[in-house]
Design brief:
Helices cover 41% and strands 6% of the residues. With 200 residues, the protein is mainly α.
């Protein structure tokens, strides 16, 4: 065993010299070509080349905390999504928080009545920024089969909605797909770093 370690640069030079000696080709072009074939282009090691927005968005999308909040029958499907059979933990969104001040995702799972609308608005205002909303099911999205005076015909009349999930009730897989769509939307956001530092 040798007393000294061979650095990548020394190894690269030894391999290049061996190639030149075996083929008899000492042209600089051939040697450079051989370096690229053996070792690829020289890249700085140990440096992550990305923007701060991408890093912040990656952290946010990988740790979505939904609020423990259900209004009607769609909430049963939302609960099933968090169970072992569907396992939303694979997507980093399994931590259902009991308080709006600890949540960043509100899932409107069920029909929204006129009495519940101001409560939903108050809960949404108590959530810290950044926050997102998923409207789950036909009742939350458009009133569904309940076209009467007692129900809001779409929760977007009360709070802004990011993702809509169709169905009555939608399957847990559909809600998981909606969360993945929300994660894609979060990853593509721009200006996250400035907003995190209150520079905008």
């Amino acid at each position: 065993m040798s007393d000294h370690l061979v650095t990548p640069d020394v190894e690269r030079e030894l391999q290049t010299n061996r190639y030149e000696n075996t083929t008899g080709n000492t042209a600089a072009d051939s040697a450079r070509h051989m370096r690229e074939v053996l070792f690829g282009n020289d890249q700085p090691q140990g440096v992550v080349l990305t923007s701060l927005d991408n890093v912040i968005n990656w952290m946010r999308k990988s740790s979505i905390w939904p609020m423990t909040f259900g209004l009607a029958c769609c909430a049963i499907e939302m609960m099933a999504m968090g169970a072992a059979r569907f396992d939303i933990a694979r997507f980093g969104a399994e931590v259902f928080r009991p308080s709006p001040r600890q949540s960043d995702l509100m899932i409107i799972a069920g029909r929204v009545s006129q009495k519940m609308a101001p409560v939903i608005r108050q809960l949404w205002e108590q959530m810290p920024e950044p926050k997102w909303v998923i409207s789950m099911g036909a009742c939350a999205t458009s009133g569904g089969v309940f076209n009467n005076y007692a129900l809001i015909q779409g929760v977007n009349q009360v709070i802004p909605v990011d993702i809509y999930v169709p169905g009555c009730p939608p399957r847990p897989e559909q809600l998981i797909y909606a969360i993945t769509l929300l994660q894609e939307k979060i990853q593509k956001e721009r200006g996250s770093f400035k907003r995190a530092l209150n520079l905008t």
